[in-house]
């Protein structure tokens, strides 16, 4: 079958009727689904209101558990950061250690280490933060 250039494919009255019927059925189904969803939402609201105190107690307990886990994780991260910082600083110290300078007072004493986080936005921003300070800030998340 030939059709004119630019004409929609299969543009017949029969197809228009079929598609109009399908569209009407889908619109009716959409209306039914919206009504069912609204009804379910209302039932959920009633259930939450009915058992609200129980939900609050359970949620407070879960929040307390999460705070404890988070605080423990931050503490472990701070301990690990301290260990990494000192180990890296010790490596650098030992790699650059000069016993001759040490005998004459020219070698600095080992003082431990500190790690920094460098954040870059190319061409715009370069910031450097002490990783321990970032973890101290992260620990404050649980404060109310």
Textual characterization of the structure:
It is a single chain. This protein has 4 helices and 2 strands; from the N terminus they run αααββα. The chain is elongated, with a radius of gyration of 34 Å. It has a domain at 70-144. Helices cover 67% and strands 8% of the residues. A hairpin with a 3-residue loop joins β1 and β2. α2 (52-96) runs antiparallel to α4. The longest helix has 45 residues, at 52-96. The protein is mostly helical and 144 residues long. It has helices spanning 13-50, 52-96, 99-103, 131-139, and strands at 116-121, 125-130. The mean pLDDT is 86. A two-stranded antiparallel sheet has the order 1-2.
In a nutshell, what does this entry contain?
By secondary structure, this protein is mainly alpha-helical.
Percent of residues in beta strands: 5-15%
Main sheet summary: 2 strands, antiparallel
Question: Residue share in helices?
Answer: 55-70%
Q: Mind telling me the C-alpha Rg? A: 34 Å
The helix-and-strand class reads mainly alpha
Q: List unreliable stretches of 5+ residues.
A: none
Shape: elongated
**Element-level helix/strand string:** HHHEEH
Mean pLDDT: 86
Q: Cα distance, first to last residue?
A: 74 Å
Biggest sheet strand line-up: 1-2
Question: How large is the count of helical segments?
Answer: 4
Q: Total number of β-strand segments?
A: 2
């Amino acid at each position: 079958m030939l059709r004119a250039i630019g004409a929609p494919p299969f543009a017949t009255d029969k197809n228009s009727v079929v598609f109009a019927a399908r569209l009407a059925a889908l619109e009716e189904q959409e209306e039914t689904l919206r009504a069912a969803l609204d009804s379910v939402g209302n039932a959920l609201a009633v259930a939450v209101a009915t058992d609200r105190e129980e939900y609050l107690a359970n949620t407070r307990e879960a929040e307390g558990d999460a705070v404890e886990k988070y605080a423990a994780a931050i503490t472990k991260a701070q301990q690990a950061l301290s260990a990494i910082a000192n180990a890296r600083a010790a490596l650098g110290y030992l790699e650059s250690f000069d016993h001759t300078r040490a005998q004459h007072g020219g070698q600095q004493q080992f003082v431990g280490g500190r790690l920094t986080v460098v954040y870059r936005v190319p061409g715009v921003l370069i910031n450097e933060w002490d990783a321990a300070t970032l973890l101290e800030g992260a620990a404050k998340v649980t404060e109310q």
